[in-house]
Design goal:
With 816 residues, the chain is of the alpha+beta class. It contains 15 helices and 34 strands. The strands form eight sheets. The protein has an eight-stranded parallel beta barrel, surrounded by four helices. Strands 27-28-29-34-31-32 form a six-stranded antiparallel β-sheet. A hairpin with a 5-residue loop joins strand 14 and strand 15. Helix 6 packs parallel to helix 7, helix 9 runs parallel beside helix 11 and helix 14 runs parallel beside helix 15. The protein is elongated, with a radius of gyration of 34 Å. The two termini are 62 Å apart. The relative contact order is 0.07.
């Protein structure tokens, strides 16, 4: 890790300087003074003085000799307005005033070092003290023909006779030697600025933020921030006791980007930006592009460089070319801070992969891991879009967790929240004094439900910030997919707004055309740059073409949004409504379980039983079920069997895999104690978990259940109208036609010799899964022997079988 600079001494703090000039109005130059005494040459210079024009040899005295023996001339004082703007942090180009600049009399040096006792220019063979101009400004003109490779020797009242330099150099004679930040050229290239201005910098995190680097041969950190409305920006941090007076940044033209390279500042340094707003007031903000942050409630950004070495090359290579709609995809949703409370990323890496692999899930999905100030938001109100939450460790620790999951053969999805952001006054809201990341129209900027702000998707820099952020999580953290939260709230101008509280788009419609364009650009960019990654929309309306390609125009005139998958919120709502009814009433709600097949192939769907369905009074999944404890668990198991066989991928929130009865709480997480062998009812919960394991195992080994998820040829109703019996029977088909039959009996009665129509091409069928098996906590009713197909047509098929249907159960049959 790069050494961090020593903080300023106590005497440099605003509350304790001792030898400052008499108080006067800020920005006024001091009265004229006499030239300073001769600068003192360094004893035994490390290199001999160069001849004129840098040529070695004898001859007349060089300019450096003259500077070493002559008088340091007084520099012309700064114009009043320039001085004021520099000291108030509202100057757009501090590098023009500070640093070294040639002029007719030699080289003018000026430094801004608040609370310093003295400042001298040092170079091989030279040490020249600068004169104080007051307010921490020091200046002088040295009769040099060219600007040397110089440093500043800065002394404070607390410095002893042998100081230590901020960047490791010895001061010699008191003070500390430091590189002058204002002698460096911009550390951001013209191409970066061009791409930022165009809103097309797909790796924006490498251009903005804080980057440790070697610049012009010197180690330090480049700070850059986009703040186009600011009058000035300064870097503040623990390296300057949070007084940014000495470190104003320069504006890089029309890009709106401000930049400063600070030598000696390295990894681990805390920092923020002090921004002068258009009205002249100041606000101190965390870096929107910070890749690491302090742990909340602290809010500073941290200079970060990754040192993680990946070991998942085989995983990344294997996912390329894998079509997600034609592959097994079973997701375990996790809230990382509460899955095992108290564990950090590295501890989770020791437990989570083994647990998920044992249960057979192909993927985990993390609720938002980006930094957020309020834990009770579960991560859905983000302030640090580029920083994994520090609650659980460092960014490299998070990479270690992803790496461990990949090496266990498990994909990683993360929830991503580009729909809104909170109003915290140290974060994005009115970042540079005016609406910047949020929409300029207050009616469109405020989210009516969540008290947050909505991004301005029509501004190219904001769109770039979000598109690059999606790429960032995929490229830097190797995540395999993004589940995009609250897409519906982005798509509609009238979302949760009353009549008259919104304005239509240019065509008179309610669609947010800017948000549509943003989502299309985000998806197209992610799929182009990150092969094998999938994007998933949480979209709760019937928007046409969520998972259609962006270049395919639908009947509504819009191109597709370009997502790979979409959460099937309709199936979730309808099916949970059905199973919540007592079986005696289910015949009247039969369509709630069959209606999903009317639109099943309009999009590529995921069937989600997510965290949203087990909180806020909705009850845990097993607690939604009617009946006594046995019947609740039986309903729970039957429902999962139906879900795993239904077209679409599946997602299950943590705790529901072992039938946790209580709602999820982010304070204490799943009720793991239910699986303690000393608990009397532990077999009940272990049985449900064993079922989930077997569901995933059989699912992964049965192409009929996933190979044609998005093709109508992959599904056929056998009997979807048996409302009086509460029975649902259908078949699934692999690409080669191999079938699997699923039959769910949602009544608490055994149905003997229940005839099911099948193909006459399969002579016999075997029961491959039965949710009523005794090992799952069921009654043990089932079909242990093969079921021979009888040449008796039924359900429009040429043959039939007559299995026994256990109570409140789902059975799967495959060819013997």
């Amino acid at each position: 890790m790069t050494a961090r600079p020593s903080p300023e001494p106590p005497s440099a703090r605003p509350d304790g300087p001792r030898d400052r000039p008499p108080a006067r109005v800020l920005g006024q130059p001091p009265p004229p003074t006499q030239p300073l005494p001769h600068p003192q040459p360094l004893p035994h210079p490390t290199t001999p003085p160069a001849a004129p024009h840098g040529r070695p040899g004898s001859g007349p005295a060089t300019a450096r000799d003259e500077a070493a023996r002559g008088v340091v001339l007084a520099a012309a004082p700064l114009a009043g307005d320039e001085r004021r703007r520099l000291l108030e942090g509202t100057h757009h180009d501090p590098h023009a005033l500070l640093g070294a600049h040639p002029e007719p009399a030699g080289v003018r040096f000026r430094a801004l070092r608040p609370f310093a006792r003295s400042v001298a220019v040092v170079a091989p063979g030279l040490r020249a003290p600068l004169r104080s101009e007051g307010d921490g400004l020091f200046s002088g003109v040295l009769p040099l023909r060219e600007i040397p490779e110089y440093r500043l020797l800065v002394s404070y009242d607390t410095d002893g006779d042998a100081g230590t330099g901020e960047d490791g150099g010895g001061g010699g004679g008191g003070g500390r030697e430091v590189h002058d930040p204002y002698r460096f050229l911009p550390a951001l290239g013209e191409l970066d600025l061009h791409l930022i201005g165009e809103g097309r910098h797909e790796r924006l995190w490498q251009a903005l933020g804080a980057w440790p680097m070697v610049h012009q041969g010197v180690t330090g950190t480049r700070f850059t921030v986009w703040a186009p409305n600011a009058l000035g920006v300064r870097v503040v941090g623990d390296f300057c006791c949070w007084d940014g007076t000495a470190f104003p940044m320069r504006s890089l033209g029309a890009s709106g980007v401000w930049e400063l390279f600070l030598p000696g500042v390295g990894e681990g340094a805390l920092y923020k930006f002090d921004i002068a707003r258009p009205d002249g007031s100041h606000t101190v903000r965390a870096d929107p592009m910070a890749r690491r942050t302090e742990c909340p409630p602290a809010t500073a950004s941290i200079v970060h460089a990754s040192h993680h070495r990946w070991h998942d090359q085989a995983w990344l290579a294997g996912r390329v070319g894998r079509e997600v709609t034609e592959s097994p995809f079973s997701v375990y949703e996790v809230h990382l801070p509460s899955w095992r409370p108290g564990l950090g990323y590295r501890e989770l890496a020791e437990q989570l992969p083994a647990y998920v692999k044992d249960l057979g899930f192909t993927h985990v999905e993390f609720m938002p891991v980006a930094e957020h100030p309020f834990g009770g938001s579960w991560g859905y109100q983000v302030t640090g879009f580029y920083a994994p939450t520090a609650r659980l460790g460092t960014p490299d620790d998070f990479k270690h967790l992803v790496d461990a999951l990949h090496r266990a053969g498990i994909g990683v999805l993360v929830d991503w929240v580009p729909a809104h952001f909170p109003r915290d006054d140290w974060a994005l809201a009115e970042f540079d004094g005016r609406p910047l990341y949020e929409h300029g129209d207050p009616a469109r900027a405020a989210h009516p439900d969540w008290g947050t702000l909505v991004f301005d998707y029509g501004r190219r820099e904001v769109r770039n910030f979000l598109v690059a952020n999606a790429v960032y999580w995929c490229e830097e953290f190797h995540v395999d997919g993004l589940r995009v939260d609250a897409v519906a709230s982005m798509l509609y101008l009238d979302y949760s707004r009353d009549s008259g509280a919104w304005s239509p788009n240019a065509y008179g419609g309610r669609e947010d055309l800017d948000a549509v364009a943003f989502l299309q650009e985000m998806n197209a960019t992610v799929y182009r740059r990150c092969p094998g990654v999938v994007t998933i929309a949480e979209e709760s309306t019937a928007w046409d073409g969520v998972t259609r390609a962006t270049h395919h125009v639908g009947p509504g005139g819009f191109g597709g949004l370009g997502f790979g998958l979409k959460w099937n919120m309709g199936w979730m709502h309808d099916s949970l409504g059905y199973v919540a009814h007592d079986p005696v009433h289910r015949r009247y709600h039969h369509h709630e379980m069959t209606f999903s097949m009317v639109y099943a192939y309009s999009e590529n769907y995921v069937l989600p039983i997510s965290h949203d369905e087990v909180v806020h009074g909705k009850r845990a999944l097993v607690s939604k079920m009617p009946g006594d404890w046995w019947q609740q668990r039986a309903n729970h198991r039957a429902y999962l069997g139906f879900m795993w066989a239904h077209p679409g991928k599946q997602l299950l929130f943590m705790g529901q895999e072992f039938a946790q009865g209580a709602e999820w709480s982010q304070e204490h997480g799943p009720d793991w104690w239910l699986l303690d062998p000393s608990y009397e009812a532990e077999p009940d919960h272990r049985g449900v978990r064993d079922l989930v394991r077997d569901l995933n195992t059989v699912y992964a080994a049965t192409p009929a259940l996933w190979q044609r998820d998005s093709a109508p040829e992959g599904f056929a109703w056998i009997d979807g109208d048996a409302a009086q019996d509460n029975v649902f029977a259908f078949s699934r088909h692999a690409a080669d036609g191999t079938p699997l039959v699923c039959v769910s009996n949602m009544s608490p009665v055994v149905r003997h010799e229940y005839r099911i129509g099948v193909s006459d091409e399969v002579p016999a069928w075997v029961e491959v899964l039965n949710t009523d098996a005794e090992r799952y906590g069921g009654s043990g009713v089932g079909n242990p022997d093969p079921l021979k197909a009888e040449p008796y047509g039924w359900h429009g098929r040429p043959a039939s079988v007559v299995p026994v249907l256990p109570p409140l159960s789902t059975i799967w049959l495959r060819p013997a």
